[in-house]
Structures are given as structure tokens and as C-alpha cells.
Design goal:
This protein has 204 residues and is α/β, with parallel strands linked by helices. It has one domain: 3-Layer(aba) Sandwich (Rossmann fold). The protein has five helices and seven strands; from the N terminus they run ββαββαβαβαβα. The chain has helices spanning 37-45, 91-105, 127-138, 155-169, 186-194; strands spanning 4-13, 26-31, 63-70, 75-80, 114-120, 142-148, 174-177. The protein has a seven-stranded mixed sheet with strand order 1-3-4-2-5-6-7, sandwiched between helices. Helix 3 (127-138) links the parallel strand 5 (114-120) and strand 6 (142-148). 34% of the residues are buried.
Length: 204
């Protein structure tokens, strides 16, 4: 059951904006195109279509901010970053989007308190996932890895994936395995994000 009582779109930015520095905690979601990032955000928020799931991958060109209020009265921003790695977008356009993500993750003042890297369980980590994860860690931001589409792989593949990710990311990074489509394990992610289980309490 979602702990979210209200969620609404606020604005989209492509550069410096006051919302980046207004003191409201920011939870950023990054992931390659078609990984289910928008579906993940909608599922966590208990909504069906607040975060647009475009039929055309790579369609999002802005950093979109959503104001999220939970049942404890606290407000956070969910920040939807453009999907990356879509082959049918021109090289120039791909670089623009990747530069925009890098700029946001690298902000010295403001920017995300928590960066959620969304993966496809069938694909695992890509080079860009690694790159953006490293930027987040280097900037001292909390990193959370969300592995979506768990329903698409069998138990043996799940076990192998968990060994692989844990081996590469280590024990310092928290990893959640779930399915935005079926809702499996979403309650665990909700409790982590909104239930006060974050030991550093940066989102409180």
C-alpha cells in the first residue's frame, strides 16, 4: 500500500532553475530507455499515468519534477530524468541528454539527495548505468539500484543476477528487486523511501 497522499507534476527544467535549490529533498530516477523507469515511479506513487510512459523511447527531453506528499505530511520531489541509450536517437541528441543528466547529478549545490538507478533484470548494468552511478557516488549522493522486471526471469537467472550485481556494486549500495508490472516487492521500496528506514535520514 502506497504511503503517498498526493503527487503532482510541478515543472520541467533543462538548466539552472530555482527549484533545484529550494531545500525540498530530491529523489532522482535514472535509467536507460525502455527499462520501465516511468512505470516504476507511477507504481511507487500509487498512480497509473502521472509520470508519462511515452510510446516512443527517448521522448523525454527535460528533467521533470513531481511534488510528492506522504501521510506523515513530508514533501519530496520525485525527479524523472530523460532515458538514455536509445539507439534510434541521433548521436548528437543522445549526447545532449547524457550531458543534461551528468550536469544535474553533478550539481555542487542542490541536486538529488538520493539517486535511484533503474535496471532491467534481463539486461543488468550497462556502461551508462555504471557511469551515472559513479557520478552520484563521487558527488557523495546516496545510491539505490532498482532492478525492475523481476517477473521476466526465472529463479536461476535471478540468483545469478543477484550474485553479479552484488559482486560488482559491493555491499555499500542498496539493491531492490521488483516488478512494476505485478507490484511484487514494491512495498519494500515504499517503506525504504517513505517509511523512515533510511539510516542516514536524508529524506526526512
Amino acid at each position: 500500500m502506497s504511503l503517498v497522499t498526493n503527487a503532482q507534476f510541478i515543472t520541467g527544467v533543462v538548466g539552472e532553475d530555482a527549484i533545484l535549490h529550494d531545500g525540498v529533498p530530491q529523489i532522482a530516477f535514472v535509467g536507460r530507455s525502455n527499462v520501465g523507469k516511468s512505470s516504476t515511479m507511477n507504481a511507487i506513487l500509487g498512480r497509473t499515468s502521472l509520470v508519462k510512459t511515452g510510446r516512443t523511447p527517448g521522448k523525454t527531453r527535460e528533467i521533470n519534477f513531481f511534488s510528492v506528499t506522504t501521510n506523515d505530511g513530508l514533501v519530496r520531489y520525485f525527479v524523472d530524468l530523460p532515458g538514455y541509450g536509445y539507439a534510434k536517437v541521433s548521436k548528437l541528441e543522445r549526447k545532449k541528454l547524457e550531458d543534461l543528466i551528468t550536469w544535474y547529478l553533478s550539481l555542487e549545490e542542490g541536486g538529488p539527495d538520493l539517486v535511484c538507478v533503474v535496471l532491467d533484470a534481463k539486461v543488468g548494468l550497462t556502461d551508462l548505468d555504471r557511469e551515472f552511478s559513479k557520478i552520484a557516488i563521487d558527488q557523495g549522493r546516496l545510491l539505490l539500484v532498482l532492478v525492475n522486471k523481476l517477473d521476466k526471469i526465472n529463479q536461476k537467472a535471478q540468483a545469478a543476477l543477484k550474485r553479479s550485481l552484488q559482486g560488482e556494486l559491493g555491499t555499500e549500495v542498496t539493491i531492490f528487486y521488483y516488478s512494476a508490472k505485478t507490484g511484487k516487492h514494491l512495498n519494500i521500496i515504499n517503506n525504504y523511501l517513505f517509511g523512515g528506514e533510511d539510516p542516514q535520514e536524508v529524506l526526512s
